[in-house]
């Protein structure tokens, strides 16, 4: 009877211990299941709390470390993605600036070519104008001496020649645009330099303008 009683107690205790341990194992497995389901939903903040001091606890800890590493890697990838986006924006801006600089360079080259052409044309025409001026000066002297009644007819030719010279000067100024430099100047010197220019003096003389400084 004692032996049978001991056997029954042993079986009962084994069943009780197995039931307790089995319940703990089932709960641990459920926790693993819910953790995997949370991972599938994209809930990387979910953690598994298993304290069974066995392989299941080690498996839960491994799961938690894996999720932590995934979260860290995800944040790094997001940071890298932002950096790549910034680099793409910078490249786009640099490309736009480069295209604008290329267009501006082409425009400068065109202006430079136009300036060289205008300089060559102006040089040739000014040589012709100088010869005409010399001939006109001699002709005016002869007309004033021998035919004073016709000397006034040469005035229109002289004015047209001066206008042509001024047109050439305007073309050259347009072909070679200058950057304005703001600085202090002597106004008296500036006015004197402008009034001393032969074209200005000629305009004053022809139009009978008296300049008082």
List the helices and strands and how they pair.
Elements: H1 2-41, H2 55-146, H3 154-175, H4 187-195, H5 198-206
Helix pairs in contact: 1-2, 2-3
Write structural notes for this entry.
The chain has 213 residues and is mainly α. Helix content is 81%, strand content 0%. The chain has helices at residues 2-41, 55-146, 154-175, 187-195, 198-206. Helix 2 runs antiparallel to helix 3 (154-175). The longest helix is centred in the middle third of the chain and has 92 residues, at 55-146. It is rod-shaped.
User: Rounded to an integer, what's the Rg over CA atoms?
Assistant: 50 Å
Tell me the number of helical segments per DSSP (H or I, 4 or more residues long): 5
| Average pLDDT, all residues | 76
Secondary-structure element string: HHHHH
The profile of the biggest β sheet is: none
Secondary-structure content class: mainly alpha
Number of strands: 0
Please state the overall shape, judged from the principal axes of the Cα atoms.
rod-shaped
The share of residues in helices is: over 70%
What are the low-pLDDT stretches, counting only 5+ consecutive residues below 50? none
Proportion of β residues? under 5%
N- and C-termini, Cα separation:
146 Å
How do you describe this structure in short?
Helices cover 81% and strands 0% of the residues.
Pick out its properties:
about 210 residues; mainly alpha; 5 helices
């Amino acid at each position: 009877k004692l032996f049978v009683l001991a056997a029954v107690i042993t079986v009962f205790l084994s069943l009780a211990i197995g039931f307790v341990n089995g319940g703990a194992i089932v709960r641990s497995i459920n926790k693993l299941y819910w953790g995997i389901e949370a991972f599938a939903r994209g809930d990387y903040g979910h953690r598994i709390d298993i304290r069974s001091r066995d392989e299941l606890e080690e498996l839960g800890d491994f799961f938690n470390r894996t999720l932590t590493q995934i979260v860290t890697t995800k944040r790094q990838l997001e940071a890298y993605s932002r950096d790549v986006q910034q680099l793409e924006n910078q490249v786009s801006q640099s490309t736009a600036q480069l295209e604008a600089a290329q267009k501006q360079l082409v425009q400068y080259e065109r202006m430079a070519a136009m300036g060289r052409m205008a300089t060559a044309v102006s040089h040739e025409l000014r040589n012709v104008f100088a010869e005409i001026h010399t001939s006109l000066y001699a002709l005016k002297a002869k007309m004033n001496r021998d035919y004073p009644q016709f000397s006034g007819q040469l005035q229109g030719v002289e004015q047209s020649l001066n206008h042509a010279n001024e047109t050439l000067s305007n073309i050259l100024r347009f072909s070679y645009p200058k950057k304005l430099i703001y600085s202090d100047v002597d106004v008296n010197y500036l006015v004197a330099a402008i009034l001393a220019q032969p074209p200005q003096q000629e305009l004053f003389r022809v139009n009978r303008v008296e300049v008082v400084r």
